[in-house]
């Protein structure tokens, strides 16, 4: 196991994470039953906000690399050390065959997630420069305008919800701004994107299929419209992918470039929505932290890093073993999928001291919320900026906000709330 890395502690901004519920899920004894591998763990499909962390802590202590018979069968990597090793070995652990649990059969692979290096590298070479800080910050004004409109709208709602009225539409607005969409496209992409996200949570196949088809059509429309405006490839995602598609030295084609836009629209909605919803839920139960961050907004970036650690959104991203191997003393066969439980790794007690405690200025906070290795999230800078602006506006435009009902969690596909009912008191003077 890894050597513990002490974390810094402070008296201000330190407290137990409000979501560390208890669970009845216990890992079962491993072994073979009737010639088939016995299931040792099953994801809880009726989580409360935080209950999963008690499950993961029990697994790390008793069975850190369990086999689950759910979703067609998969291994679950729960420790920081195991996940770090898996994400940094593209030769042994592939994303090309099965990159999520449960496996979703596709007629074609969706770039860039469904490709390993060196093909994956071609896509990242085109994508990464557009997400560099100097480009992303050009959109900060549009991000802030969206956050202000949405928070002001929540204050007018009779039953405001931190996800439906803030996190979900804000994530779509931000990605639409990055893509340089016209107002009519922004409105539709928000409507379709939010509908698609909730259909995924409901596992509503007809709506998923309908929205997915429309998202491909939208991606094609975005691609054609942006190219007609002749944007700068160093600052525009479509133009950068198009330039790569014209280069015979890359694997990118115009068809796969459009598919990349479609995939990034979905990714640009899911994770930011999940983690922003978690941040809102966390702050809604910690009025002292709210007050501190209103009084000291300069502390917000540090608070965001700690909330990213506590509430990582990804847990179904997977790798598939390319050959027989051993992980954490367990024999993993070729072609068996391994789910990377990032929320568990971020609370691994061998890596983070007192891992369930919120520490405002935690030292060595090397969390895995954006992944690691070649598939590390290209939009990490954008994600941090989204969280900063949304929470700045929410805190500045309210005197206080608290939970007004039960948090409803997303399903297994992402870790985060689907619904955060709120009671908000507007600030006397808004910026």
Automatic annotation (TrEMBL):
<feature type="compositionally biased region" description="Polar residues">
    <location>
        <begin position="1"/>
        <end position="13"/>
    </location>
</feature>
<feature type="region of interest" description="Disordered">
    <location>
        <begin position="1"/>
        <end position="46"/>
    </location>
</feature>
<keyword id="KW-0479">Metal-binding</keyword>
<dbReference type="InterPro" id="IPR036396">
    <property type="entry name" value="Cyt_P450_sf"/>
</dbReference>
<comment type="similarity">
    <text>Belongs to the cytochrome P450 family.</text>
</comment>
<dbReference type="InterPro" id="IPR002397">
    <property type="entry name" value="Cyt_P450_B"/>
</dbReference>
<dbReference type="InterPro" id="IPR017972">
    <property type="entry name" value="Cyt_P450_CS"/>
</dbReference>
<keyword id="KW-0560">Oxidoreductase</keyword>
<protein>
    <submittedName>
        <fullName>Cytochrome P450</fullName>
    </submittedName>
</protein>
<keyword id="KW-0349">Heme</keyword>
<keyword id="KW-0408">Iron</keyword>
<keyword id="KW-0503">Monooxygenase</keyword>
<dbReference type="Pfam" id="PF00067">
    <property type="entry name" value="p450"/>
</dbReference>
<dbReference type="InterPro" id="IPR001128">
    <property type="entry name" value="Cyt_P450"/>
</dbReference>
């Amino acid at each position: 196991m890894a050597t513990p890395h002490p974390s810094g502690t402070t008296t201000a901004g330190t407290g137990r994470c409000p979501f560390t519920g208890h669970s009845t899920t216990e890992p079962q004894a491993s072994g073979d039953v009737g010639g088939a591998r016995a299931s040792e763990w099953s994801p809880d499909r009726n989580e409360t906000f935080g209950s999963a962390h008690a499950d993961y802590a029990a697994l790390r202590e008793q069975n850190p690399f369990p086999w689950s018979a759910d979703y067609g069968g998969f291994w679950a990597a729960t420790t920081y050390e195991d996940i770090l090793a898996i994400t940094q070995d593209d030769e042994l652990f592939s994303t090309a065959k099965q990159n999520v649990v449960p496996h979703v059969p596709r007629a074609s692979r969706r770039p860039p997630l469904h490709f390993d290096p060196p093909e994956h590298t071609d896509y990242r070479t085109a994508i990464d420069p557009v997400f560099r800080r100097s480009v992303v910050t050009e959109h900060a004004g549009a991000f802030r305008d969206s956050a202000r409109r949405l928070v002001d709208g929540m204050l007018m709602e009779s039953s405001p919800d931190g996800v439906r009225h803030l996190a979900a539409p804000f994530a779509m607005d931000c990605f639409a701004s990055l893509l340089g969409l016209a107002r009519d496209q922004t409105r539709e992409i928000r409507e379709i994107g939010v509908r698609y996200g909730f259909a995924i949570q409901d596992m509503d196949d007809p709506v998923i299929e309908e929205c997915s088809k429309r998202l491909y059509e939208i991606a094609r429309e975005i691609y054609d419209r942006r190219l007609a405006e002749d944007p700068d490839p160093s600052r525009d995602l479509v133009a950068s992918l198009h330039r790569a598609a014209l280069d015979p030295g890359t694997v990118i084609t115009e068809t796969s470039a459009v598919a990349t836009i479609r995939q990034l629209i979905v990714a640009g909605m899911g994770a930011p929505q999940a983690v922003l919803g978690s941040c809102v839920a966390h702050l809604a139960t910690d009025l002292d932290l709210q007050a501190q961050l209103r009084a000291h907004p300069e502390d917000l970036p540090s608070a965001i890093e700690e909330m990213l650690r506590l509430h990582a959104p990804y847990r179904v991203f997977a790798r598939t073993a390319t050959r027989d191997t051993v992980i954490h003393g367990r024999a993993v066969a070729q072609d068996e999928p391994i789910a990377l439980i990032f929320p568990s790794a971020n609370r691994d007690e061998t890596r983070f001291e007192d891992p369930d405690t919120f520490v405002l200025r935690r030292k060595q906070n090397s969390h895995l919320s954006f992944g690691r290795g070649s598939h590390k999230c290209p939009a990490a800078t954008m994600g941090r900026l989204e969280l900063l602006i949304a929470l700045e506006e929410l805190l500045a435009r309210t005197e206080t906000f608290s939970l007004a009902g039960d948090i409803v969690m997303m399903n297994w596909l992402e870790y985060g709330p689907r619904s955060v009912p709120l009671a908000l008191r507007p600030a006397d003077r808004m910026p």
